[in-house]
Write a structure and sequence with these properties.
six-stranded antiparallel β-sheet; Heat Shock Protein 90; alpha+beta; about 25% helix; 5 helices; globular
């Protein structure tokens, strides 16, 4: 009998599969909020803003902003790895799929998104953008976007374009009404 070693690696197919897990909008939001709460410094108050900006087409830009701890380069690297919790200090970071699953679902099946983050004890802003793939590039020395609706004190900002039909479906489920 002969053994054959198989090295497993993440391809775009993994992320496309995650997008088919039937997460609802509020569950995606919950996963990202959990991550923000988990990254707050012990004993500190925190702020999480969720802003929806109409694109005047069939989509809405959704911004998730917090003033918690931010991510170092190493934590951001780990946060991109499927099944690898970026940190294990908080029980809200339990499985390593929440952010990835949320972003691929919100973006309509591994579409575009972007993360900016600045560690609480640093001045360097790191950014990374999707869609997810086998190789991801983290940029060091970026800057947060300048929009008047964004708060001044940001440690992590996530932006993802979401189809209105995905939002409307959730609103319809909850209320039985549609919006225009």
């Amino acid at each position: 009998m002969k053994d054959h070693k198989v090295e497993l690696y993440a391809t775009e197919g993994l992320f496309l599969g995650l997008a088919k897990q039937n997460l609802k909008f509020h569950q995606c939001v919950g996963e990202l909020v959990d991550n923000s709460i988990a990254s707050k410094p012990e004993g500190d108050k925190f702020r999480i803003d969720i802003i929806l900006l109409d694109n005047k087409d069939d989509s809405v830009d959704v911004y998730f902003i917090d003033d918690c701890r931010g991510m170092t380069l190493d934590i951001l690297r780990k946060s991109l790895q499927p099944g690898d919790p970026a940190t294990t200090e908080n029980r809200l970071n339990e499985h390593g799929f929440g952010m990835k699953n949320s972003l691929v679902t919100l973006s309509g099946g591994n579409g575009p998104w972007r993360i900016w983050t600045k560690p609480i004890d640093g001045d360097t802003i790191f950014s990374v953008e999707g869609p997810f793939g086998k190789d991801m590039v983290i940029k060091e020395g970026d800057s947060f976007p300048k929009n008047k609706f964004l708060p001044a004190d940001i440690s992590t900002l996530i932006k993802v374009k979401v189809k209105k039909s995905f939002l409307q479906f959730m609103f319809l489920l909850e209320t039985g009404k549609t919006y225009t």
